[in-house]
């Protein structure tokens, strides 16, 4: 899933994470919450898109894109997102890093092989 | 694999990519080249670290970290890296995006549960 972002500048939140060992009864509510957070984020002012991958070893990278620092701060203060982050620290993640960055330039190759 | 980066500011190159359908005889040289590129990047001036994940569906996110725009430009001009990128466009990737961003702030949770 590629994010369709506008011309820079805009902001990226790079969330690198390692899932903790999963409990015997499944994923401990993680998948449902992750899906809910994406749905909520999409409703936030300034949300531009998200790209997320998880490997077989439980390592994951999620990058969300935002129009401004203010929109990032707004999402950070969202009550349900705050509660989910607490659960993440306690239950779901063994380790993580968050980096907030300003995207200055972007390019790529579209599915048909054209350069964008 | 988490990158051990210094205090911001520094730069991130966010490479989001989808592998093309793999040929019948394996990965078409992709894994060897990817490994070689990481080894080469680590030798570049200004390289700070790399984090990379690929999902079962062939979607991947690799984020490399650099001390300056100049160090990113230097790696981009590396001959072997330039050749590898050409192969990537032709053979290995169905689609990709590259975003260059300046990291302004970072935080996280260390493996023992301590905040960093």
TrEMBL record, chains A, B:
GO terms for molecular function: monooxygenase activity. It comes from Limnohabitans radicicola. The lineage of its organism: Bacteria, Pseudomonadati, Pseudomonadota, Betaproteobacteria, Burkholderiales. PANTHER family: ABM DOMAIN-CONTAINING PROTEIN, BLL5343 PROTEIN. Residues 24-86 form the ABM domain. InterPro entries: ABM_dom, Dimeric_a/b-barrel, Jasmonate_Hydroxylase-like. Keywords: Monooxygenase, Oxidoreductase. This is Antibiotic biosynthesis monooxygenase.
């Amino acid at each position: 899933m590629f994010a369709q972002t506008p011309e820079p500048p805009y902001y990226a939140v790079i969330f690198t994470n390692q899932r903790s060992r999963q409990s015997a009864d499944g994923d401990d509510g993680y998948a449902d919450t992750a899906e809910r957070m994406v749905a909520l984020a999409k409703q936030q002012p300034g949300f531009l898109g998200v790209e997320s991958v998880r490997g077989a070893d439980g390592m994951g990278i999620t990058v969300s894109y935002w129009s401004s620092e203010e929109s990032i701060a707004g999402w950070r203060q969202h009550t349900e997102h705050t509660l989910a982050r607490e659960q993440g620290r306690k239950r779901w993640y063994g380790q993580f890093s968050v980096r907030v960055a300003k995207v200055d330039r972007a390019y790529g190759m579209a599915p048909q092989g054209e350069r964008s």
